[in-house]
Q: What sequence folds into this?
C-alpha cells in the first residue's frame, strides 16, 4: 500500500518534523521507494541459511571477569564540578 501525501503529513506531525507543503509529494515518493526496496528484501528466500553461520568470523574474544582497583572515589570526584556524599551533585531538574 503506497504512502500518500496525507500519510506523510501525519508521519511528519507525529515525529515533530517540519516539512514544507511542496515537499510532501517528493517525500512520499522517496518513502515508497524505500518500502519497495524492503519488499524486495523480504521476498528473498533465506530458509536454507543458518542464522548463526558466518564464514570467516572467529569466536568472540572473552576476557576474564577480574575485579580491578577500586576505592578511587576521590580521584573520580575530582572531575566533578560539584559533589556531595561521595557522589556527583547535579542540579534538580524536577520540581
A:
Amino acid at each position: 500500500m503506497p504512502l500518500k501525501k496525507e500519510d506523510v503529513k501525519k508521519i511528519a506531525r507525529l515525529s515533530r518534523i517540519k516539512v514544507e507543503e511542496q515537499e510532501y509529494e517528493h517525500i512520499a515518493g522517496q518513502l515508497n521507494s524505500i518500502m519497495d526496496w524492503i519488499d524486495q528484501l523480504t521476498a528473498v528466500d533465506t530458509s536454507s541459511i543458518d542464522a548463526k553461520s558466518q564464514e570467516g568470523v572467529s569466536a568472540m574474544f572473552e576476557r576474564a571477569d577480574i575485579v580491578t582497583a577500586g576505592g578511587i572515589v576521590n580521584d573520580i570526584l575530582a572531575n566533578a564540578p560539584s559533589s556531595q556524599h561521595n557522589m556527583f551533585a547535579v542540579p534538580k531538574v524536577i520540581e
